[in-house]
Design a protein that fits this description.
The complex is a heterodimer of chains A (268) and B (410). By secondary structure, chain A is of the alpha+beta class. Chain A is built from four helices and 15 strands. Chain B has two domains: 1-51, no CATH class; 77-404, no CATH class.
Chain lengths: 268, 410
């Protein structure tokens, strides 16, 4: 499945590159760097969820890649103006803007290497092989998630930490494994592994660097960790699964567009 | 001319300021309470405070139909609207649905009684120039003035784009470019429309007295849509989770919200493919542009996939008894986390969809909704209205590029 998907993507990108011969677009290669959010690495990553849980993460790893840059426009919710975002804070309104039909678009650049990202480490790490494509403007990025051995233990995303609220402390761990249990009726495994529509108004250029940062702070939006304490902790941690609300929140939120940031620097 | 604030007339002055800023409509009315509202046609209308009528007396009478089923004027585009078979006939429950049939997998039968919408800024542009960005359209060609208040649950005199028994309601006819001349039969004009907040400036297309009363409330609340109906549990599976014994078996749903949006450069199945945008006039007859609302989006259990199985249990589990009738509104869904659905007794809502062929619950003990990569949906109310916003199409299944023109409010 993975090889087929990669081959298809390469074919699309190859077509795009071919178009470059007649439209003037230049074939380019660029560096790719990945990391967690920018922050003081000397401090633990701690934040408060929408449910009031104070969460400190001790592990947050993502098997990221391949990645594609696409000409399709992002969903509107991801390109609201600063003024609109200010209004969201004050109006009794939903942030639920945009819509669910995201068409296919056209891929203009690709990063075919899979890399493990430590989302707690702000320092950017170079991805071997970089990326390539044509120098056409992209509007969105598309990240594919595949399970990975090693530190990820066969998962695509792995996380551990402690959640605290009102005197309750819940050490937890868990993972996102891309498999058939994620497939919604009407969807597919490929649909389940893709995070599409990540805002990325970038134009690939030779000598530049594509930078991808993973932000784990939204991974537990909506999660109520109290449910985990009904189970049994192993080695001091409660393990969430897709059968509890923490796991359901995680497998949705770890695949949210907002968990990824994509920029392009014309210089390395 | 009063400063337009685009329909937020009943909100606080702070909200009015923000609403005006967000919608890009200029400075707000400093008076606040009696805010000016500009309809699509540009006519100023003042909404009075309190319980005074907001609709002009003339609104009580529907306007004559813009065209009939027999009208076939060449080089024109007939604009109509439909909620298709689902909105008009409802959805029966069956454990063995036919392929393509809309069936709520958790055993509910649906019937709609009101589907009120306001459509404005119907327009044609020259075709877009970007194959990968559907929102890009060319120069403006023609537009239909004003806004239309419609109950799309009601049948119309036209056969729907999806075929009988669906029907459609006539709205307007685009006869010529604004610049003069005639529509060009060799051009597939980009077709777009807006869903706008209910406004006293709209024309009443087909609202009866009850619909007019509801529309008045929509104006007061700033809603763009109001959907009402009943759901009746028809599932026959026994041995269900105990929680279901506490859920009603008949629920009235009354859902009102504002989701102003532009539906841009819609794809048109009449072009021979669902992925080809534009409406092309004919030299020999009229062309069809049927604005189509898909009501199943309200009940979808997942985003980011096409036609996911619809459910109703997450609504039913939140219903309240009102005058002896179980009623659910969007307020009842507020605060309920899509990935942690709980009923009124704060118990997980089980997934009983397994009684329908083709659907297997991932976790029978807990129904949950798939967010499809969206990170900003706070609760089920957001989820439902977000999903519903994507339900505006053209000629049955033609997808439009949806660009929100304001926040979703309730």
């Amino acid at each position: 499945m993975k090889r087929r998907a990669l081959a298809l993507a390469l074919l699309v990108a190859g077509s795009a590159a071919g178009c470059g011969d007649t439209t003037g677009s230049e074939r380019v290669s660029f560096a790719v760097e990945v990391g967690g959010i920018e922050r003081d690495a000397a401090q633990p990553l701690a934040f408060t969820s929408d449910q009031g849980w104070e969460i400190t993460l001790s592990e947050a790893r993502v098997a990221l890649g391949p990645l594609y840059l696409n000409t399709i426009a992002p969903l509107e919710s991801d390109r609201r103006s600063p003024l609109q975002r200010l209004g969201d804070l004050l109006l009794p309104s939903a942030h639920a803007l945009g819509e669910s039909h995201l068409s296919s678009g056209r891929i203009v650049a690709q990063v075919t290497t899979q890399v493990e990202v430590d989302a707690l480490a702000p320092a950017l790490v170079a991805v071997p092989g970089g990326g390539d494509g044509v120098s056409e403007p992209a509007l969105t990025g598309e990240v594919w998630l595949f399970n990975r051995d090693g530190a990820l233990g066969g998962a695509a995303v792995r996380v551990a930490g402690v959640a605290r609220r009102e005197g309750v402390e819940v050490p937890f761990e868990g993972s996102l494994v891309i498999d058939q249990t994620l497939v919604t009726t009407g969807g597919s495994l490929d649909t389940a592994r893709k995070v599409r529509g990540i805002p990325a108004q970038v134009t690939p250029a030779g000598g530049g660097a594509l930078r991808v940062r993973v932000d784990p702070r939204g991974w537990f939006e909506g999660a109520d960790f109290r449910e985990l304490t009904a189970g049994t902790a192993r080695e001091g941690r409660y393990r969430f699964t897709s059968q509890d609300n923490v796991g359901r929140a995680f497998i949705n939120r770890a695949r949210a567009r907002a968990a990824f940031g994509i920029t392009f620097s014309p210089t390395r | 001319m009063k400063a337009p604030v685009c329909g937020y007339a009943r909100l606080s002055s702070v909200t009015l300021v923000l609403a005006a800023l967000l919608s890009g409509c200029g400075d707000p009315d400093p008076a606040g309470s009696d805010a000016g509202v500009t309809d699509v046609g540009g006519t100023d209308v003042v909404i009075p405070a309190g319980d005074a009528a907001v609709l002009p007396p003339s609104f009580a009478t529907p306007v004559p139909a813009a065209f009939t089923a027999g009208t076939r004027d060449p080089r024109t585009i007939q604009v109509s609207i439909s909620s298709e078979e689902l909105g008009q006939q409802g959805a029966d429950y069956t454990a063995t649905p036919a392929e393509g049939a809309i069936v709520l997998v958790d055993g509910w039968e649906l019937r709609f009684t009101r589907i009120l919408v306001t459509i404005g800024n119907v327009r044609l542009n020259q075709p877009g120039t970007s194959a990968s960005d559907q929102s890009m359209v060319g120069a403006a060609v023609a537009s239909v003035p004003g806004a239309f208040a419609v109950d799309v649950q009601k049948p119309g005199p036209l056969t729907g784009a999806g075929g009988a028994p669906e029907t459609a309601i006539p709205l307007a006819v685009i006869r010529a470019p604004a610049a003069g001349g005639a529509l060009d039969p060799s051009v597939r004009y980009a077709f777009s429309y807006d869903a706008v907040a209910a406004t006293p400036g709209a024309v009443n297309v087909n609202l009866d007295a009850g619909g007019v009363a509801l529309y008045e409330q929509m104006v007061r609340r700033g809603w763009s849509q109001y959907v009402e109906g009943t759901a009746t549990y028809r599932g026959t599976t026994t041995g269900l989770a105990p929680a279901f014994a506490d859920y009603p078996s008949a629920v009235t749903f009354r859902l009102g919200w504002a989701a102003p949006a532009q539906y841009l450069n819609c794809n048109n199945p009449d072009n021979g493919s669902k992925d080809m945008p534009g409406v092309q006039p004919s030299a020999s007859t009229a062309a069809r542009a049927q604005i189509t609302f898909h009501l199943d989006h309200l009940f979808w259990g997942a985003l980011g996939v096409e036609d996911p199985p619809p459910h109703f249990d997450h609504f039913a589990s939140r219903a309240q008894l009102v005058g002896g009738v179980s009623v659910v509104t969007l307020d009842d869904l507020m605060g309920v986390v899509p990935t942690n659905l709980v009923d009124r007794m704060m118990r997980p809502v089980p997934d009983r969809g397994g009684q329908t062929m083709g659907y297997t619950p991932r976790n029978p003990g807990a129904l949950s909704l798939d967010l499809g990569g969206n990170s900003s949906l706070r609760d089920v109310r957001d989820f439902v209205t977000f999903s519903a916003r994507a339900g505006g199409h053209l000629n049955a299944d033609g997808l439009c590029f949806v660009r929100p023109s304001g926040p979703i409010t309730y």
